[in-house]
Amino acid sequence: MAKFQSLKEAVAENLRDGDTVAFEGFTHLIPHAAAHEAIRQGIKDLTLIRMTPDIIYDQMIGMGLAKKVVFSYAGNPGVGLLRRMRDAIENGWPRAIETEEHSHAAMANAYEAGAAGLPCAIFRGYRGAGLREVNPNIRSVTCPFTGEELAAVPAHRPDVAFIHAQKANRRGDVLIEGIVGVQKEAVLASKRSVVTVEEIVDDFDDLHPNLCILPHWTVTSIVEVPGGAHPSYTHGYYDRDNAAYLEWDRVSADRDLFTAWMKENVLDAGPEIFAARVKEL
Amino acid sequence: MTSVSDFTPNEMMTIAAARALSNDDVCFVGIGAPSAACNVARLTHAPDITLIYESGTIGTAPNVLPLSIGDGELCETAVTTVSVPEMFRYWLQGGRISIGFLGAAQLDRFGNINTTVIGDYHKPKVRLPGGGGAPEIATSCRQVFITMKQATRGMVEKIDFYTSFGHGEGGNHRERLGIPTKGPTLLITDLAIWKPDPETKEFTVVSMHRGVTKDMVQDTCGWKVRFSGQLEETPPPSELELTTLRELQARTERAHGGKKGKQDA
């Protein structure tokens, strides 16, 4: 049953040292405010799952929260490389991290398998791909009916998923619209889930019946954080802050600049600043 | 069509790539140069082309080029938007895409692409973003077009990592791996148009853009280039093509606050 909490309480109750966690969002609805709270609480030794680790995982890796990253595309979307993640992989700063790399198809299938309660995902993929040689979790199975060889990867079963959404109602049902990504699957695959929302409304009576709704009993915790996806965007609320993505390329290029930026904008800040950041967008 | 004489190699690349697309195509669009080409095609000779971005947006018609594959405008202008698992399972794996349009960091003569690492995978010299959707785009789309600017560090004798499989070691390598789709059938660069040899599958230059010499193509390519016996000249951009591309880029620049990110083509 969904609890309405502060972001501080929701992260403290649901995210623990050593957890496997997915902060999901596919360009749209990326849970930046929740990731910043995890950084402030200094949670350690996390295994981070994400199709497209971008700025938030760059920040979490750079602040030393991660021991492993499971991913399929590690870039600053539309801008370039993830410099903090590269520094961890190439130079072990601030600590060495393990990586487990997949394709998007494999990651999406692994979340869906997790949501479906299956131990693995089966799909037609990785043919001729180099990742088969370097990732022992990419295996194959033979179709018992046709004999076709198919790729298999373990299902994602995170301890906890964090997502950002447009709205929750007073009962705790969650609405997601626009580019819905893999968030529904990530929540249903996880043992616990925290959803930050732009606003809490009385009910969903006037909405289209097929908007992506997570019933309140599938969600552990709901937190109202207006602007909580910034510099990503929330469809219907504010646009993507492209300048912030470009700025991150500069900030993340230097360890000292990064550390100072994180202190000022994350460690010494709180979730309430997100609303101001999206005012002009 | 009246042609114009004043255009850049990048503009020629984007326009030549756009011409390869038709109204009936269902195209899985990579970000960067492929995105510009696909939208020029839609705004000129192929208004009914279906453009799909891996964020789940199907039949999208953006007014400006997206900075990322998940920009809001892609969803707002799409016929429908589906979840990412659905995109990869029903639409890509289901065999509904006619053309996958990819860019490349490193490419070899058989159309194999590396966007994963430079150097050894476990001790990389440079860690690149990785494959994203490309490994399955390369094998599930009926055919694959590739577009990139020529440079010896991009077009190499041997790629460091097989992010996505083209024709492997050439010949019938795809068939031997049980891959039923055609793979790379076209490479469009800023200097030339290349097609795979029907037997060996090695990319062969079939057309050079106006003002380009064989030496220019060879000097910017890391393998010994083969030229077709019937080498043609790529028709230069028409007035309409060039105006469409330039207006699209100007709108994009204004929309993204004067900064174009990586979609400059």
Automatic annotation (TrEMBL), chain A:
GO MF term (any one): transferase activity
Keywords: Transferase
InterPro entries linked: CoA_trans_fam_I, NagB/RpiA_transferase-like
Xref: Gene3D superfamilies: 3.30.30.40, Glutaconate Coenzyme A-transferase (3.40.1080.10)
Keyword Transferase: yes
UniProt KW Transferase keyword: yes
Pfam families, sorted: CoA_trans
Domain of life: Bacteria
Protein name: CoA transferase subunit A
UniProt source species: Microvirga arsenatis
TrEMBL record, chain B:
InterPro entries with a match to the protein in the record: CoA_trans_fam_I, NagB/RpiA_transferase-like
Parts forming coiled coils: none
Stretches that traverse the bilayer: none
Signal peptide: none
Protein name: CoA-transferase subunit beta
Highest classification ranks of the organism: Bacteria, Pseudomonadati, Pseudomonadota, Alphaproteobacteria, Hyphomicrobiales
